[in-house]
């Protein structure tokens, strides 16, 4: 009987020591932190992390359970963007919602894990801007609010969570650094006024020299203007109606100051008006053959600014390429936006 008595008191002592150590030594608040440098501007990193809807693009847990299910709610990005998930033992079940978002500096989320009580945890992505690159901290914070078992669990948290944070930051770095860095110099958003134009519809093969096609279109308009005694009121332009499968459909136009024109209905030269409203404007300098890169830049700028297209783009040929050096050719490209 004495053996059992000693075992009983030993067990009581161990339990008391367990709770005493947990109560007096271990802390409620636990933090796990990992960092990485990313060779991209802060705004690119911020855009990548400021959305729960895109979290799985770099999440370290996304590959641990191919059968996990996810539900997304709230806005695409920013405060209120939310993800809920149900997965295997490694992934678990819970929710994560952005509760704080400071552009190019901080994204903080609140997490609830099923089976771990009603108290939330928090994860923060902190972006330290260093110009063309950033240092990124991924920080996890938990507060066990006096829960002794939780405090002991907190002792293991760095070993459990730290490697996953390192993996996630590595995926984030690879994803962001794979993206192009664009120089948005020369781009702006402007209110443009409508212009009255004489125009003809044309088409051309984008795999061939388009100069003869465009020249022929302007020739038709100029001949009509000479016949009607109409003077030019602005620089020539083209309105892009469509392009694809190597074919470019466009209107070639010249601004004029007239209210109407005379001529038969089958005359290819028509009177019309350009777009009026808000548009992205890009000043292209150099040869016309860089247009594809210019439109790629405009699309990247619109994505960066969260802008949506609102009609056909157009180009204004500011100067005559026959009178200036190729590097001095200026084209204004406009993309209507909502």
Describe this structure as you would to a colleague.
With 338 residues, the protein is of the alpha+beta class. It has two domains: 17-177, START domain (Alpha-D-Glucose-1,6-Bisphosphate, Chain A, domain 4, 2-Layer Sandwich), CATH 3.30.530; 187-336, Multidrug-efflux Transporter 1 Regulator Bmrr, Chain A. Helix content is 28%, strand content 34%. It has six helices and 15 strands. It has helices at residues 2-24, 42-49, 148-155, 157-177, 211-228, 291-305, and strands at 29-38, 69-73, 82-86, 93-102, 106-113, 121-129, 134-143, 187-192, 196-205, 237-244, 247-255, 270-273, 277-285, 314-317, 330-336. An eight-stranded antiparallel beta sheet has the order 8-13-15-14-10-11-9-12. A seven-stranded antiparallel beta sheet has the order 1-7-6-5-4-3-2. Strand 6 and strand 7 form a beta hairpin. The radius of gyration is 32 Å and the shape is elongated. The N and C termini lie far apart (86 Å).
